[in-house]
Amino acid sequence: MTLHLDNLPRTIYVEREGNKPLVVMIDQRALPGELLWLRTDDWRAVVDAVKTLAVRGAPAIGIAGAAAVMLAAFSLAEECSSAALFAARLRKVAASVAEARPTAVNLVWGVRRATQTAARALGAGRSTHECAEALYGLTEALIAEDEAANRAIGAHGAALLRARAAAAGRPLGLLTHCNAGSLATAFYGTALGVVYAAAEEGLVARVYADETRPVGQGARLTVWELAQAGVPTTLICDNMAATMMAAGLIDAVVVGADRIAANGDAANKIGTLGVAVLARHFGIPFYVAAPVSTVDLDTPDGTAIPIEERDASEVLPAPLSGVSVRNPAFDVTPAELITAVVTERGAVSPADIGSFAKE
Ligand code: MRU
Fold first, then answer.
1. Distance, C-alpha 307 to centroid of its chain
2. Which strands sit side by side in the sheet containing 12-17, from one edge to the other?
3. What is the pLDDT of residues 264-293, one digit of tens each?
4. Is the N-terminal amide bond of 102 cis, ω within 30° of 0?
5. Do domains 5-145 and 169-358 have the same CATH topology?
6. What residues does substrate bind to (predicted)?
């Protein structure tokens, strides 16, 4: 299958307007109707974009976190009279950026990469302006690293699907939940990276995309992205996955992750757990595709993963008297329901992910 990956825009990048650094992000709230861009030199606007899901998806918000700290460093370098004041204020900014959303560990990871880079630059006696420049370089490097990791994840995932397609003697039907695509990363995607790599080899007949209530990442983003790339796509409501599986249309499930605990339990968009339970019932392999930076060795198991509870208006637009609403944005799939975690360093059993990530 010939893909049109060049139709996919880059999700987040940095550029200069004269000397001024800018962060440029697709405003994903406007998709699929309009492809709009946010361009800002204000770190608070990046944090707002993360909170309001203009930029979303674990790897993308990790990059956004580092980029926000970078923009703050450029402003603080102008405002602060000493390196000590600069460092103290940058630490405060970093703490508030890291709190923008709680579940995806990549956000904390991206912010930590930035604070480590800043500490190293200042520790080496570099000026606050040079420190800000080092953070600009870091943001560019994280974007390049992310795409490279996704392409490697894609290649490892395609190898798994190649074996399945060979056993089936035909290209495969795949199911995905939420958007773990190019839009959730700098470029290419994790779960959809696996789809793209496999589709290029002719291993994919069709991708079934769950709508993904309540925010609709599948209905608004995944199907748009797959159509742009030229992958045959069918949109289904979340409650249709079982029927598609029962009809024999799904050969494998591929999803992303926001945080993988040391024991292999994986948090991902709400509804993923239900898909994993169904996949086990129907004997369908369930793959989690994520970079090693999504593994959190400080979180022993899924019960310790903080789950973001979002505003009730996402579920019930106008309040109804006497009705309360729950809106957990993520759920945790236990390791025993995951066939393999596909990382940029290879596919691994969830039971081994902790030791694998430690290496
Ligand atoms: O709330 P979102 O849209 O940020 O949730 C995104 C997901 O759950 C993705 O599946 C996950 O971040 C993996 S992205 C490669």
1. 15
2. 12-17, 20-26, 37-40
3. 999 999 999 999 999 999 999 999 999 999
4. no
5. no
6. 56-58, 101, 217, 268-269
Judging by beta carbons within 10 Å of its beta carbon (0-12, 13-18, 19+), is residue 232 exposed, middle or buried? middle
Ligand 1 mean position, distance from CA 259 (Å): 10
Which of 63, 101, 179, 310 best tests ligand 1's pocket when mutated (most atoms within 8 Å of CB)?
Answer: 179
> Of ligand 1's atoms, which has the minimum distance to the CA of residue 181?
15
User: Ligand 1: which atom is nearest the Cα of residue 189?
Assistant: 15
Residue 86: how many CB atoms within 10 A of its CB?
Answer: 23
**Which of 258, 265, 296, 331 does the annotation list as catalytic?**
258
272/130 Cα distance (integer angstroms): 44
Fold of 169-358: Rossmann fold (3.40.50)
- pTM for the model stands at 0.97
Q: What residues contact residue 301 under an 8 Å CB cut-off, 6+ apart? A: 261, 262, 263, 265
The domain spans of the chain are: 5-145, 169-358
pLDDT band at 318 (very low <50, low <70, confident <90, very high): very high
Return the CATH class of domain 5-145: mainly alpha
Q: State in Å: Cα 172 to ligand 1 middle.
A: 24
